[in-house]
Amino acid sequence: MTKNYKKRSILIIDYHIPSSKQIVKSIGIVFKISELMLTLVHNFSGTGRRPIDITKIPLKNILKSEEIEPKEINSLDDFNTSS
Amino acid sequence: MKSIVAIRYRDALYFTKKIIKDTNLPIYVAVGRPIVSNDHVVISFTEENGISIRGLLVPNEALILEKEKTLAKVDMPSSPYQTGQDVGIFWKDIVYFENGKVPTQPTQVYTEGQFFSQTSDAVIIKDPETITIKRGDIDNHPNKIKPTFFIVPKVLITGIELYDKKL
Hints:
By secondary structure, chain A is mainly beta. Chain A has one domain (2-80): Roll (SH3 type barrels). In chain A, 5% of the residues lie in helices and 53% in strands. Chain A is built from 1 helix and 6 strands, in the order ββββββα. The longest helix of chain A is centred in the C-terminal third of the chain and has 4 residues, at 77-80. Chain A is globular, with a radius of gyration of 14 Å. The relative contact order of chain A is 0.25. Chain B has 167 residues and is an all-beta fold. Chain B has one domain (5-162). Chain B has strands at 5-9, 13-15, 28-36, 40-48, 51-59, 86-93, 95-97, 107-118, 122-134, 137-140, 149-153, 157-162. The N and C termini of chain B lie far apart (57 Å). The model of chain B has no long low-confidence stretch (mean pLDDT 86). Chain A binds chain B through residues 10, 12, 22-29, 42-48, 52-53, 55, 68, 70-76, 78-80, 82-83, and chain B through 2-8, 26-34, 36, 41, 43-48, 53-56, 60, 63, 65-68, 96.
């Protein structure tokens, strides 16, 4: 199952929250993958690459994943063209 | 549908060590869907039915933008503060949120302590006491540990006051 996910790829993942019927969409960078779990990091310290906010997603709960390339923001106008 | 963006930003940093050697502020990176306002941007990490439930709010001043030179809002004094001078700093903090409680503005923060030093982009306060002011409520920040130093990016500072603890 892990072969579908590459470390450092940036993904939008739709998944079931464990023990819930809730379906959410999470955006982040693949930080760790194990046989059962994928860890997405949402923000990190750029120098040490130290993760700050992460989400652990059981692989069996993933409904859909899409690899994306985020737009790098270098000016406030870049937000307007990210639509 | 808004596309996904990657931003780079500054944030304040505190230490609990007695001595600090590296006073450089790290650069942070966040990835998510942007919700843009006049003076800040919310980066949404997790969404339910298109509504943000987890993310962070970053004031525009904290964004690191290669095409725009961000200048410190506060006029720093031409003569440097003396080490040990009692100062109070008002600043805007990044806001992390979850459970769908999307903030509408940066948290207003006030840090009081002794001026320790300054770099080109930050002010370093020793023995700081910091409070956050949210909707009239005042909380200690951080609320469980006692920092020894606070490094606040100048771009987030909205006011500086000198005071004398003895008075």
